Amino acid sequence: MGVLALLWGSTPLWIRLALNGLPPVQVTVIRCVLGALVLAVLCVSRRQRLPRDRATWRRIFVAAFFCNALPFTLLSIGQQTVGSGLAGVLNATTPLWSLLIGLATGAERRLSPVRLSGLLLGFGGTVLIFDPWQQGRTVGWGALTILGAAASYAVAFTYMQRNLIGKGIPTLSLSTAQLLAATGLTALTLPASGPLHLQVGPTTLIAVAILGIFTTGVTFHLTYRIIADEGATNAATVGYLLPVVSLALGAIVLNEHLGLRIVAGMVVVLVAVALTRQRRTPSAPDAVTSMAPLAQPFE
Questions:
Q1: In whole angstroms, how far apart are CA 230 and each of 48, 107, 235, 266?
Q2: Rounded Cα gap, residues 2 and 240, in angstroms
Q3: Cα torsion angle, 176, 177, 181, 184, sign
Q4: Phi and psi dihedrals of 236, rounded to 5?
Q5: What is the pTM for the complete model shown?
Q6: CA-CA distance, 211 to 11, in Å (whole number)?
Q7: Mind listing the pLDDT tens digit for each residue in 229-258?
């Protein structure tokens, strides 16, 4: 989760730099292509095959739309007009959307008061960090697109957990197939983006390369792993860590100032994420039951 937060937390920076030389749709398509190529190379090197049955591919295309094609496009469009503070708060609603969807679909069956407190506290800490009420901007279509992207991620995480993970297909094969599907879906929108920009500066090229290879390919596979290991809501809580990572990197690398309010918000977020990762302590009967199969060979 720490590596995922580190990579994902730098995504807004690379998107902003890439948009200086390319339109949003082209940025989305290129990052999907590069991410898919990276995962395809890893898949071949580990001798893992892509899914072959049509039913699985249909589910992969649904997941690719909600987890890749739609949110990638919405974020690229929204960040053209929305400030970083409001964008950070809206992005941090993904865990809350995931919680609501999980409760509605039955994916979250045992939500303890401690984890619920952590989810709500994490959003509060994010608001404290970004202080959106001081930006003096009205909420327009850009903010709504980012909110839609956050909700789309939550829908995708729950769908992937229920329909793709745990079906006997390696997560690397699933993540590779899904980015390939996302590439095909986003490529359909290229005609609406105008002519392809063939002359871009080195900053744009570097930003797009990092955006595709690391913050799309590697990040997406890590996301699949966490969903498989810990569930959709826990995977979504990484969204609370993103502002902490971006602000910490800014202070360390760029010597940016961190005020008391920001530091307090970062502490709140870290405490909140720790609360969301608390495990339910099994009761005595549960513990005895879980050990019963271990006792059988000795009987």
A1: 23, 12, 7, 23
A2: 12
A3: positive
A4: -70, -25
A5: 0.75
A6: 7
A7: 888 877 877 877 777 776 776 677 656 677
